Amino acid sequence: MFGLEAIAHNNGWTIAATGAGIVFTGLATLSLVxxxxxxxxxxxxxxxxxxxEVVVEETKPIWMPPDCPNDIQVAITLYQPLIEELPPDFELxxxxxxAKKYHLPHPHLSIRCLRDAGKLQFLGDGLFRYVx
Amino acid sequence: MDLxxxxxxxxxxxxxxxxxxxxxxxxxxxxxxxxxxNYEPLLLLPIGFGVILGNIPFFKGFGIGIYEANSxxxxxxxxxxxxxxxxxxxxxxxxMTDFSFLLANPKLMLLGAAAQMGIFFTYxxxxxxxxxxxxxxxxxIIGGADGPTSIFLTAKLAPHLIGPIAIAAYSYMxxxxxxxxxxxxxxxSKEERLIRMPEMREVxxxxxxxxxxxxxxxxxxxxxxxxxxxxxxxFGNILKESGVVDRLANTARTAIIDTATIxxxxxxxxxxxxxxxxxxxxxxxxxxxxxxxxxxTASGILFGKFMNLFLKEKINPLLGAAGVSAVPxxxxxxxxxxxxxxxxxxxxxxxxxxxxxGVIGSAVCAGILWSFLIG
Lengths: 132, 375
Description:
The structure holds two protein chains of two kinds.
Chain A: H1 3-9, H2 12-45, H3 72-85, E1 89-91, H4 92-101, H5 107-116, E2 120-124, E3 127-130
Chain B: H1 2-9, H2 12-15, H3 18-35, H4 41-54, H5 72-81, H6 84-96, H7 100-104, H8 109-114, H9 117-128, H10 133-140, H11 147-157, H12 162-174, H13 176-187, H14 190-193, H15 205-222, H16 227-242, H17 246-270, H18 274-277, H19 280-308, H20 329-341, H21 348-373
Helix pairs in contact in B: 3-4, 4-17, 5-17, 6-11, 6-16, 6-17, 9-10, 9-19, 10-11, 11-12, 11-21, 12-19, 13-19, 13-20, 15-16, 16-17, 20-21
């Protein structure tokens, strides 16, 4: 038997079509699986979730200077220790620098308040002295 | 005087048949090609020498020939007829194969699948020419361009054709530089041959190790009859990639595969005894083998062009020609063809990916055909 008759007799068309289909499907599936493999590996490589115990420490209340630059008593209380760090005759810029260093609120207004109250005496040449 | 005459009657000179002489010439030509032309010497030298060896005329009945029970060659040939040598070769092949290129670009696996169409086309042609279904399957598998797979399937379905089919399969593998380039040029335009492949991503070690396990499970679940080939293949690969058994992997890819290749080549060559080999069927097998190989190459290329219709990032359709599992011959040929058009276009690694896919594809095809016809 030869030709198309032989092919049909041996179920050739079905075997060829099914075989080709199976090979193609199989390799396409394998291709799909390996294309996702790196995602699976990345998933496995992800560091395990650890339970982090959050310990809330009791925080001591931070002392905040009173926010009232026009109150002369407060200004004296805050700025006297700073003035003691400076030489007897100092420039306002030096006092301002220290106030900024210690994060005191409203240094400009506070220093002006001290001047207006006569606590900072002008000596000339940009120098001042604290008057108790 | 009688003793001398009797001796002379038992010599090859007296017993020589013209068919043996033809085959000795063929075997010598193979040896010449292997040594002088360097055409697949690892295969053609043992086969060629085996052809010469198997065609030395001898007095039948002494247990000398490969087809005579109790002969040494017959015992060695058992590894072929039982399918043991192909499995061992696949073990070594697995230990040599680097799947990272395929893992980096999995869509290239489809080209390996497409190139298997040559097998089924030739199967139909062989049926049409009057071969039986098992014979047609064994002839069709030549299109996979995989010697061990061809031998394995033929040993299971049509053992009387092992000689011509193995010789045809290995000969066409050796003739890749002659068969494939004209088909590549015919089916691709210059612009297509100039397409550059994107740089491959880096593949992690875990992916490389997981792949042989996943690949084996998926392929053998689909075609359990391919276990004797794909089992050792993926096992060899995990030996290599695991990195913990370097000694075993090294032995598999050197001593073991070399021993099996020597024995396969020699015994398959010796199985081509003129009186058994030279018949019209063998001529038909050689012709159909050429058809199988050509169609496999063409279907891979055409499928590459088909994929380009849908892909944003085009692939070089030449890679389809490497979908046949002739490792690494066809990959090398694709690379050289690409370089002929553009010296700076490197296709080798991508072609190797298609090649490895082709090995898997042809083994799956063998399993499918075996399971269809085993009943």
